[in-house]
Amino acid sequence: MNPSEDKTYLYMKKLVTKNYKLDLFDRFSDNKFIENNEELKKIGEEIINNFSKHQNLKIHFFADICAAPGCYSQIILDNFDIINGIGISLPYEEGGVKFEIEDKKFKKIYKNILDNKYRLDLPIKLDLGIGSCMSYQYNAKISNKLNLQLIIKSIYLLLPNFKKSSSLIINMSMKNIFIAFNLINIISKYFKNIKLWKSSNIWATKNTFYLFGYDFIENKNITNELNNLFILIDNEKNDIYNKFIGTNEEYNKINKMINNIYYIRINAWKKLIESQNITAN
Ligand SMILES: C[S@@+](CC[C@H](N)C(=O)[O-])C[C@H]1O[C@@H](n2cnc3c(N)ncnc32)[C@H](O)[C@@H]1O
C-alpha cells in the first residue's frame, strides 16, 4: 500500500527528474502571472466532453470556484441547459485574474476563498460544482501548500451545497503522491462513482489531473469532516503526507485508476524528449 513504490510511478518520476529542464516555463511578467486563455478554452472543452461522456446529466445550476477568467464557466453555459451559474475568484488587487465572461445567467463574485470565515450559502442546491484553483506563487514550497488548501477549501465550499445526483469536477495534483491518494480516497466516499482524467494535449507533462465525482452521497457531517481535513493538512508531519490511510481494496482501486494518468504523463514526456532529440540532431 505504498504508492511511491509502484513501478509505473517510479518510472514516471525518474523520467521527470532526469528531464525536468526540458519543461521549465515562466508565466510571470512584472511579478504577475499571465493566464493563457487559449489553453484554458481547449482543456475546458476536453474536461466537459470527458466529464459528460456516457452520462445523462441534467445541469441547471452550477458554481465555479476560482472561476476567472471564466473559460470553463462559458463552456458549461454553452453545453447545458443552465438557469444560473455563479463564479468565485480572487480579486485582481490580491493577485487574481479578471473575469472576461459576460452572461446574464452568470454571477461573478470576487473573493479570496481562503478567507477563514468564507462559506458558500446558496438558496438552492447545486447540480454541478467545479474547482480549478491555482495559487500563482513563484515559490514552489509555498505554492504546493496553498494549492492543497485551495483544493480542500473548494470542496468545503461546494459539497455542503450538493444534493443527491450532484456532480463534482476538481483539479488535483500528484506532486505529493500520498496526498493525491488520500484525497482521492476521501472525496470518493462522497460519491457513488468517480473517474480520474488527464488531458493528453494540454499540460500533459505536468502534475495536474482531474477528478470527476458523480451522484453525491448526502452526509450531514460533511462540514465537520472537511473542516478536520483542513486542520490535518496544516501539519506536514501528519500521516496524510507520507502514507496511504485506507484499506487494501481502496488502495488497489485508486492505484489502477491513477496508473492510467501516469501513462498519459509518461507518453507526454517521451514525446517531449523525442522532439528535443530531433531538434538537437
Ligand atoms: C487556472 S485559473 C482558473 C481558470 C478558470 N477555470 C477558467 O476556466 O477560466 C486559477 C484561478 O484561481 C484563482 N485563485 C487563486 N487563488 C485564489 C483564492 N485564494 N481565492 C479565489 N480564487 C483564487 C486565480 O485568480 C485564477 O482565476
Structural commentary:
The chain is α/β, with parallel strands linked by helices and 281 residues long. The chain has a single domain (27-243), classed as Vaccinia Virus protein VP39 (Rossmann fold, 3-Layer(aba) Sandwich), CATH 3.40.50. It is built from 7 helices and 9 strands. The chain has helices at residues 7-19, 37-52, 71-79, 140-158, 177-188, 222-232, 248-280; strands at residues 28-29, 32-33, 61-65, 84-89, 106-110, 126-131, 162-173, 191-197, 208-216. The strands form 2 sheets. It has a 7-stranded mixed β-sheet, with helices on both faces. Helix 3 (71-79) links the parallel strand 3 (61-65) and strand 4. The N and C termini lie far apart (43 Å). The relative contact order is 0.14. The structure holds S-adenosylmethionine (SAM).
* Average predicted confidence as pLDDT: 93
- Label the structural class: alpha/beta
Bound molecules: S-adenosylmethionine
Give the class-level CATH name. Alpha Beta
- Lateral arrangement of strands in the main beta sheet: 5-4-3-6-7-9-8
**What's the CATH H-level superfamily name?**
Vaccinia Virus protein VP39
CATH-scheme architecture: 3-Layer(aba) Sandwich
CATH topology: Rossmann fold
Strand content: 15-25%
Beta strands, count: 9
- Biggest sheet record: 7 strands, mixed
- Write down the Rg: 19 Å
Give the helix/strand layout.
Blueprint lengths: L6 H13 L8 E2 L2 E2 L3 H16 L8 E5 L5 H9 L4 E6 L16 E5 L15 E6 L8 H19 L3 E12 L3 H12 L2 E7 L10 E9 L5 H11 L15 H33 L1
Parallel strand pairs: 3-4, 3-6, 4-5, 6-7
Antiparallel strand pairs: 1-2, 7-9, 8-9
S-adenosylmethionine binds next to helix 2 and helix 3.
